[in-house]
Design a protein that fits this description.
Length: about 210
């Protein structure tokens, strides 16, 4: 009986322990995200989305918007920023990010990660990473720009080869018989027959000859 009671107590305490462990991980994840300045990184991404969308909206209007167009543009940008903030702002996605980290890292993992980012090396990495990420993007863009002519040429060569490989392109077109040439060849024969006739007309049929006699 005592063993059964003890087992029941353990079973009931397991969910509480699991919740305590999860709560502990979430606290550590929150601390890690704060150290990584995740809110600032997400804000930068959101600002880029807003700027791109707003620039596209301005291109729809005239180069010098009319007062009515400017009012519409201002209202559009206000609604746009509010929508982006509500969907991809840090406050909107922070719970999902915390859940993601908490599911994939144990308490021991988080302890080690936090220890690193609190160390001088970790602090240095956090400080330098944003500028390094921007420079890495510039390097990638420069290489892609230099690669574009080769990619364009490869695409054009492939297009030509694909067109040449079509069945109708490889088979020669069948020439139609020239009827005019046959008509021209028959005309001299008819003219010669007319010339050979004594009267200069077309030769008569045998029945016509017998009637004349």
């Amino acid at each position: 009986m005592k063993r059964l009671a003890l087992l029941l107590v353990l079973v009931l305490c397991l969910p509480l322990t699991a919740r305590a462990d999860e709560a502990s991980r979430r606290v550590k994840v929150q601390e890690l995200l704060t150290l990584l300045h995740m809110d600032t990184l997400m804000q930068q991404m959101m600002d880029a989305i807003q700027k791109q969308t707003a620039d596209n909206a301005r291109q729809i209007c005239d180069e010098t918007p009319t007062p009515q167009q400017q009012a519409l543009l201002d209202d559009f940008e206000k609604k746009l920023f509010a929508l982006v903030e509500s969907r991809v702002g840090w406050k909107a996605i922070e719970p999902d990010i915390i859940d993601l980290y908490a599911r994939n890292f144990t308490d021991e993992d988080l302890d080690g990660i936090l220890a690193f980012y609190k160390s001088p090396a970790g602090v240095s990495m956090i400080t330098k990473m944003p500028a390094m990420a921007a420079q890495a993007m510039q390097i990638s863009q420069a290489r892609v720009t230099a690669l574009m002519p080769e990619l364009k040429q490869m695409t054009e060569d492939f297009e030509k080869a694909a067109k040449a490989a079509k069945p109708d392109a490889a088979a020669p077109a069948k020439s139609q018989p020239d009827q005019s040439g046959a008509d021209q060849k028959s005309q001299p024969k008819a003219i010669s027959l007319l010339k050979d006739s004594p009267t200069g007309s077309a030769p008569s049929s045998p029945n016509q000859s017998q009637t004349q006699r």
